[in-house]
Amino acid sequence: MAAGVWLVLLLATGAGAWLAGVSAAAGAAAPRLLSHATAVVLFVLLVAAGWEILSFPFAVYRSFLLERKYGLSSEPFSTWAADHAKAAALGLLLFIGAGLLVHGAAEMSPRFWWLIAAAGFAVAAVVLSRIAPVALLPLFYRFKPLDRASLHERLLRLSERAGVPVLGAFEWGLGEKTTRANAALVGAGGTRRILVSDTLLKDYSDDEIEVILAHEIAHHVHHDIWTGMALETCLVAISLYAAHLAVVLLGPRLGVADPGDLAAWPLMMLAGGVVSLLLTPLGNAWSRHNERRADRFALTLTDRPAAFISAMRRLGAQNLAEERPSAAVLWFFHTHPTIDERIAAAKDFRAA
H or E element: which one contains 244? Predict the structure, then answer.
């Protein structure tokens, strides 16, 4: 919401065009080979700074104050602020990379830049999926080898039975920051590893942890990460094409002629963002389909429906999952089926 307000302000007040002019002037003063890159980087920095200033109070309320109010956060404000700063810095680097990619694509092909950019974003997503577990997650969380030998061996055997080799199993230090519980199988190829949160290890039985991890393994067995990236690439391409059409149809009224013009970027981001929002239910529906399939896989692999049901009930209560969301909320915000639906499916599995 804050992002949309900021983009509308940039368009309505002419501030976007002014920032583009300032950035272009700075680029002109730079060495010739760096002029375009300098202009893009400065424009992204200025737009991102305004975005951060406008959205920061909402971020504090949403991800710190509300989390504390409902007992989901266990970290002091200083820790939250440090993590927010790190996330903002990483986001800025990605934003700059995206800006350089879009500008380069527009220079290469003003007509098909959106297709080139979508392909570039797909490559970046693949690279990030491999380096995130090794380079990015440790910036925010503590990890150490899982020291419960019996559980460690059990989870490794589970991954072997599923045909998904892993580097190892690690304890994920979530408890320093949140009361939520979680498990994950992250990375790909040589970086794939099992993560079990300390909050999960503290309160859940080995049977419950095993069936939760089996669900995560299912996503790798079914290649959900890759199909999800493929779908996301298609959705991004559609959103970028909407940005392209916005410049073609509305650009002349705003004094911008092509997507390579920095002054057109607020319009492009707004148009692409609106289309991306409208496409959200499609991505969420696909995700819920994958989650149901992963639940069935976990139940079949472990044959522990009772453990699955108890784990779902406890996770739903501990993570404050919404039990019965409205249809609109489900379609726009839920990537997983409701807890009630997942428990009902496990009961049917047990009966069968």
Answer: helix 224-254
pLDDT, position 205: 96
Q: Would you mind telling me the total number of residues written for the chain in this entry?
A: 352
Q: pLDDT (tens digit, 9 = 90+) per residue, 288-300?
A: 999 999 999 999 9
Quote the CA–CA distance of 79 and 82 in Å, as a whole number: 5
| Segment 342-347 long-range contacts (CB within 8 Å, at least 24 positions apart) | 342/291, 342/292, 342/295, 342/312, 343/309, 343/312, 343/313, 345/292, 345/295, 345/296, 346/295, 346/299, 346/305, 346/308, 346/309, 346/312, 347/305, 347/309
List the structure tokens of 277.
Answer: 């929002």
Cα dist from 224 to 18, 20, 221, whole Å: 44, 40, 8
Strands 169-172 and 143-145: antiparallel
| Euclidean distance between CA atoms 170 and 187, whole angstroms | 13
Do 181 and 203 form a contact (C-beta atoms < 8 A)? Answer: yes
Categorise residue 6: left if φ over 0, alpha if ψ from -120 to 50, beta otherwise.
Answer: alpha
pLDDT band of residue 188 (cuts 50, 70, 90) is confident
* Number of helices and strands in the chain (H, E): 14, 4
pTM: 0.90
Other beta carbons within 10 angstroms of residue 289's beta carbon come to 12
Please name the residues in contact with 54: beta carbons below 8 A apart, sequence gap of 6 or more: 2, 5, 6
CA gap 169, 37 in Å, rounded: 42
CA distance 199 to 201: 6
Residue located via tokens 């890159």: 37
